[in-house]
TrEMBL record:
SMART domains: C2, PH. Residues 1-15 have a biased composition (Polar residues). Keywords: Calcium, Metal-binding. This is C2 domain-containing protein. InterPro entries: C2_dom, C2_domain_sf, PH-like_dom_sf, PH_domain. Coiled coil: none annotated. Residues 17-31 have a biased composition (Basic and acidic residues). PROSITE patterns: C2, IQ.
Amino acid sequence: MSLSSTTLPAITQSPRVGEERDGEVKEPESQIKHLEISTKDPIFYRRDSPYAISDPKHVYVSKYDAVAHHAQTKEEMKHLAQEKWVNAMAVKKMAMWMRKRLRERTRLKPVVKNLKSLKEPKEISKWEGQRSYLCDRCMLPCPGADVTCEHCNIVLHESCLTEEELREYRCGVVDTEPEPEHAPFLGGSPPSAGSSSRSLGSSSRSLNNFVGGGGGRRRTSSPTQQRLPEKQLQTYTCGFCKQDTEADQHWFTAEKKRLWEAEHHQINAALIGRVLRGFLSRFRYKRYQRAVVRFQAMLRRYIERRKFKAYRRQMKRPMIVNVLAASDMPVANRDNASADPYVIVTVHDSMHREQTLRFDTSVKQKTLDCEWEPQNFLIPGVSGNSVLVFTVVDEEEMRDQFLGQCAVPLTNGDLWLHGGKFDVDLEDLQYIVRTHNKQEADIAYEKITPAGWLTVEIKPLCSLHSVCGPIEGPHIDVLSTITKTSIGAVQNISKVSQKNSYWGVIHDGKASFYRRFGDRTPKVVVPLSGLQVSKVKSTGRHKSPHESSKPSHIPPSTSARAATRSDRLRRSSQLATETQHKKEFSLKNVDVSSSNRQKYVFEAPTVNDSRHWYEVVDYWIQKHKQIKRMRSRSRSRAYRDSVGTVSERGYRDSMGSVKSPDRSKSRSPSPTRGSISP
């Protein structure tokens, strides 16, 4: 293949060199045919075209003249062939090496995730194919293949190895003991003195050139070394294979270190994460625990507050109700276009819708807008579930007429606790009005349409300074004598020893006692000023006379069960007696001028109720004493002021009536400042 075929692929083969006939060089038919075919293009045969080839000396024709193009000598062709052969062999060797690398070692490193999956790099497989013809160092033919790489097709001359490589390759060579000075050498007679230095100097060279390589020279070994058999020589590994092995080992070491660091980093991160997660978990748990405890406390507080409010609403407390005004009421009397209104205040139980109390205001004559003075209707006991009903009625001779009704439930807000003053509209009938005997009142409900509004005031009394509830005490007739200075010579003995149950209310320093709950007016009203309250102490009268003299130990004849039962009964009776005394408190008149020294004992249903009654009574008694002391102090202060004013005025009047001497004449002149009197 000629160079023209490689450089100009569009043109066919050039004529052979030296093809001449009669001293003229003839163009081959293929060339002429090619030119004829190529000149069929319009730009080559047009006369006006600069590329016309009618002239044989045209640039296009002379450029591709085959004879001038291939005028090379034989020596030049040999040099080109040798260079081309060397290049081809080098390319071939490189291609083989690359194919081997690609086939065996050239691949991506495996992705290793942990140390367990990391494996040491495999050893390079031994080469079993055809060896190279050229030495890898000097690029000269090495037909003997002195040194071959164990893992690839590379061959080397032994003389091309370095000292380190040769020492490594000849690690199987051993040093023998030196022969005597006149001992015969391996090659013949002993050398002379002059030749000994040359032989010693050539030993180092023979170490580097053990076997004749390039050049065909053969070298002998040193006199102190002996070559071992072939099986004891170390295998040789070329630099490329060493580099691959070292790269793999370096990668393995680096990957092992990286994985070790990554694993320890992951372990440390996991430990730190566990610590942080534990801390966060504990922190969140504590926070959630505090939140749950707080929420539970809030919920318990809410529930307990509701329970307490429900309990408080079930309790009865005294309350004062006032009807202040009524406005825009409907007309009841057509003759004078007015009405005679009055208001009926009733208390209803919201659970059973029963009327428990009733109060009536005074009647206002011939008016549609009226006002009342504060009546201070005392409700002796009302719970928080009750309803106050205000019914406006027109007074008539035959039958009263219904003008309107409004209901105020005490469950709305804190009305039962704090009360207030407000206006309410009159609406239709909701609750039937009854008399004090629980009979339906005689009122006409059909004639008039309700209209207008009422102004009412509700004042609940403080539970710390007021109390109401059932209580047992002396007979109601005997109780009326508590404030009398003398109870009389004769009293009904049966009433003195008798105990009655009634409804009591303490407020504003007075104790009001009703025969039953629902009465409008109390039967007895006792002012607490001048009285003394005390708790009833256990006197031990419940014990038998000989109980204190009984032995405390159990007789041997009595069984343990009978003794335990009797002891339990005795303790329960004693506890009941002590509890009964804890429920009691007494009132006594402490007026010095009074001859009534009788003690009036009261008993509450429970110990807490008795304590509450005692505290409220003691509060009002102490307050009355304090007011009395303040009044006495103010009276004494006023008396002293009045006495001092009168005495000063009398002294001035008495001094004015006596003629006083003229002191201005007898008064001597006062000495001047700085002078000394005799």
